[in-house]
Structures are given as structure tokens and as C-alpha cells.
Amino acid sequence: MAEDGSGKHTLEDLLAVMARLRDPDTGCPWDLKQSFATIAPYTIEEAYEVGDAIARDDLDALEDELGDLLLQVVYHAQMASEQSRFDFSDVADGITRKMIRRHPHVFVDPSLRDEFLGSNVWERIKAEEKAERGVPPSDAGSRLDEVPLALPALARAVKLQKRAAEVGFDWPSLEPVLAKAEEEIAELKDAITAHDDAANESRAAKIREEFGDLLFVMANVARHLKVDPEAALREANAKFVRRFKSIEQALAKEGRRCEDATLEEMDQLWDEAKDAERKG
After folding, report:
1. Cβ(217)–Cβ(188) under 8 Å?
2. pLDDT tens figures, 36-91
3. Looking at the domain assignment, is residue 123 inside a domain?
4. Whole-prediction pTM
5. Angle between helices 229-253 and 263-279 (to 10 degrees)
């Protein structure tokens, strides 16, 4: 491995760097203190940063963020190797075998390509994998157990709904889902307008519950519309940032800040920013 920065480093170099960082005698004290649990938040954060670079269509940033995410995989694999559980080669081997096994229409029988998307081949193969691991169907637990708890709540809601829909537990069309959303809005309004000073905590809990129900239904709306709610919300966030910055910039040209403007003035500037975006 070239330590002077000459040449292009390889995956083997990265594995060697991580092994050296975790060396009990000569490694980095910070890296040596880490565990699967302490590194996990960084792993999740780096996955989000990859998504952010993609959302911004910034391929230079994506290259960098993918490296950071790869480091997380290498980090976890190194710690597992130290416990003689598995190493990076086992991880690479496992995912390669899984991808080949789950794509028989590519690697086994090309005639299955047209059938693949409209069938349950993927789910059948996953069930077969469970059987091979010795997990009887009766012990497999709920089909919802496979949806990770660590997912963002909105994304997890869609996955939970999708899993339930696979066995027919689903609204037949978008119309009743929208009707359910209207029902949940009404229930949220009722919870907000309920006045019971003796039970403020209970009222707050009810509002939170109804708000959660509404978000869950909106995730279902997104699923029926084939819209990624996380991506849609990211875009809405970016739009809000863009337009609010336009307000700040417009006021700055007048030597003022948002604190110096009225709500009406800021609303007017918001509308101007909105019109400017629409006109391109």
C-alpha cells in the first residue's frame, strides 16, 4: 500500500487501513473504543448523506459519500473479524450469492424475465432461503417483523403497508385511502378542539396519536400513488429552503432582516419567489 498517496488505492488497501486502525497495540485509540452499537449511528448517517447527494444530483459528492458508506461496511466487518464471526470476504460472498439466487431470470433462465416483475418470485425465493436456514413457517413470526425498526418512520410505514398488501390486506384503490385521510384529519381536529384542562397530558397524547394516524394514512396515499414519501418530503424541504432564502435575500437588499419585516411582507416575498420559480 502506497502511504505517500501515489497511485490509486484499492479495496484491499482500505481493508488494511481499517485493520491497522483497530490494531490493539498500534491502532487509533478512538477507533479501538468503538463497537457495532457506537458505529451504527454513523452508518445510518452516511446512508442519508448518499441519499442527499443523489437528491442534489451532485455526483462528486456522491463519489465521496459512497466511500464514507463503504468505510462503514468495512468497519463492521473488521470488528466481526476480530470476534472470529465473519469478515469482509464473507459479506461480499453472501451478498453476491444472494443477488444471483434472487435473480434467476438473469443468471439461470432468461425466459423468466417478463414473468419476474409481475410474480412473487422474489418473495418465494426469500421463503426458500428461510427454509434452508431451518426456520419453519410456524416459527417465522409476523411478516412485518422483517421491516427494520431503525428505518425512518415514514419509510417504515410504507414498507409495513406494502408487506400487509402482499397478502391482500389493502384498500382496493386510492379513493378509500383519501377518504380515510379526510376521516383522520377530522379526528385530529376533534382532538385539537377538545378542552379538558384537568387532563392536558391525555389531550396532548390524543393529539399525537391522531397526528400519527394521519401521517400513516398519508404514507399509504403515497404508496398507492407510487410516490416515495421520503423523497417527496425532501423535495418539499428543499423548496421551502429555497423560497425562504429568497425572502432573506430580498430583505437583505433593503438592509433588513426577517425580524424587521411583517408577516404580510414576507408572505408577499414568498409569493414572488414562488412565481419566479414557476416562470423558470
Report:
1. no
2. 999 999 998 999 899 889 988 999 999 999 999 999 999 999 999 999 999 999 99
3. no
4. 0.66
5. 120
Residue 196 lies in a domain: no
Instruction: State the cell numbers at 264.
Output: 404580510
Phi-psi region of 244 (alpha: psi -120 to 50; beta: other; left: phi over 0): alpha
Cell of 66: 459512497
Side-chain half-sphere exposure of 56, counting CA atoms within 13 A? 16
Each residue of 133-156: pLDDT tens digit? Answer: 766 554 557 889 888 887 889 999
Nearest CA-CA partner of 177 in 197, 161, 193, 159: 161
Host domain of residue 261: 231-279
244 within domain boundaries: yes
Residue 45's CATH number: 1.10.287.1080
In a domain? residue 245: yes
